[in-house]
């Protein structure tokens, strides 16, 4: 224990939308707290999005606490500069007690309760600790990348800005999740020749039977479903996001359509021999899987419409507009003219700074709605922490309110023996 540590009732690690949302509710309750942020509040939104980035969920789902979307286009999709403007307003609205530019190097429970926190700018202590740093910390780039030619530009999706910033030649996009599919579309629309290595990412329709699919799913209660009621239970946290876009007012992303227009599609990238990439022969299966999910979501909407007796446009089923003539499993980088590779296979969490017995064998924290088995330790802002919206603008307020209530229930009342016992080590 460091006797010079600055003490607070609650320490929040991370100044993104989750940490600031919790700060909003703690301020309402008059609970002393500090937000420790490595860079600046909501830094990732300013630096880790490409130029044409826009929301894939409609604006009405932007429901940060006390700061819901109030613009003129609730069913539109904010572009990058509009998102930043919205978030800048939220930062000012919350006015959280943030300490920016410091890195939390280690946090651990201390004997007798509370937590010790070592940072790059001194020591802190807290009665309760909230991890609000999210789950997207380390860009995933496979070891295979180390063996690619040194003159071949390689970047992660978080580094991509626009097609013009890439060198001449074809662009290999590895991964067809939400980022991969949208980046591939951005390149394709810019006239770049794209080669895509696909995986088993699902897709969904943008609009169906007269309404945005998100609106239908909201009507069906999907976004209120807690993780313990989902058919996959906690396994849903490992799911890849459905690919779709809000670009130009919103539309489907159909890789088959792109293939008809010249995009080269392959199966899962699985190896490298010399300068030749190897792919699994599963392109057809990957495309069929995505379409099966697409049609399955629409079929669920059909049942909802029928049960409610709604008068809306008739149902439809997606039919493939392109089929691979054969599975291609090899591609020479030099012969094909690939000049850049964009790795779009996600991020991995890094909670190595947190020395607490709450993690499973995969490095994931165990919790129930963000509350861990270690008294006073919480998580917020993780995908499917409680519902689909937990890691998004739409659901983080609900999680933040719940945790604020849990924190308030554990906070000792000033002047009581419990409060004096917790404060004693810092009183001198």
UniProtKB/TrEMBL annotation:
It comes from the Bacteria. Keywords: Oxidoreductase. One of its GO terms (molecular function) is monooxygenase activity. Pfam families: Pyr_redox_3 (PF13738). Coiled coil: none annotated. InterPro entries: Auxin_biosynth/cation_transpt (IPR050982), CHP04046_FMN-dependent (IPR024000), FAD/NAD-bd_sf (IPR036188). This is Putative flavoprotein involved in K+ transport. It comes from Methylibium petroleiphilum (strain ATCC BAA-1232 / LMG 22953 / PM1).
């Amino acid at each position: 224990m460091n006797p010079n540590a600055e003490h607070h009732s609650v320490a929040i690690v991370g100044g993104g939308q989750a940490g600031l949302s919790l700060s909003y509710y703690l301020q309402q309750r008059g609970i002393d707290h500090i937000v420790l942020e490595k860079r600046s509040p909501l830094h990732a939104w300013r630096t880790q999005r490409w130029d044409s980035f826009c929301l894939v969920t409609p604006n009405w789902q932007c429901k940060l606490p006390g700061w819901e979307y109030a613009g003129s286009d609730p069913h539109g999709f904010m572009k990058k500069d509009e998102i930043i403007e919205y978030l800048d307003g939220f930062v000012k609205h919350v006015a959280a007690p943030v300490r920016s530019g410091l890195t939390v190097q280690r946090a651990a429970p201390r004997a007798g309760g509370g937590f010790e926190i070592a940072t790059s700018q001194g020591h802190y202590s807290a009665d309760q600790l909230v991890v609000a740093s999210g789950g997207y910390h380390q860009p995933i780039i496979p070891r295979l990348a180390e063996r690619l030619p040194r003159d071949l530009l390689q970047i992660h999706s978080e580094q991509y800005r626009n097609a013009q910033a890439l060198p001449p030649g074809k662009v290999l996009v590895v991964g067809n999740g939400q980022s991969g599919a949208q980046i591939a579309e951005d390149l394709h629309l810019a006239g770049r020749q794209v080669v895509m290595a696909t995986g088993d990412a699902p897709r969904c329709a943008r609009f169906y039977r007269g309404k945005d699919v998100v609106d239908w799913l909201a009507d069906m209660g999907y976004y209120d479903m807690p993780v313990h009621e989902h058919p996959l239970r906690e396994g849903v946290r490992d799911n890849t996001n459905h690919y779709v876009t809000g670009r130009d007012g919103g539309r489907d992303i159909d890789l088959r359509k792109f293939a008809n227009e010249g995009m080269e599609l392959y199966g899962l990238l699985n190896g490298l021999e010399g300068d030749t990439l190897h792919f699994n022969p599963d392109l057809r299966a990957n495309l069929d899987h995505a379409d099966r999910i697409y049609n399955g979501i629409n079929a669920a909407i059909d049942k909802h419409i029928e049960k409610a007796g709604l008068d809306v446009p008739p149902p439809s089923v997606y039919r493939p507009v392109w089929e691979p003539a054969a599975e291609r499993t090899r591609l020479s980088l030099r012969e094909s003219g690939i000049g850049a590779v964009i790795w779009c296979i996600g991020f991995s969490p890094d909670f190595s700074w947190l020395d607490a017995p709450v993690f499973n064998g995969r490095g994931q924290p165990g919790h129930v709605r963000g509350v861990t088995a270690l008294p006073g330790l919480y998580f917020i802002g993780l995908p499917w922490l409680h519902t689909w919206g937990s890691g998004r603008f739409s659901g983080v307020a609900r999680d933040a309110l719940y945790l604020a209530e849990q924190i308030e229930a554990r906070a000792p009342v000033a002047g009581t023996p419990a409060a004096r016992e917790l404060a004693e080590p810092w009183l001198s």
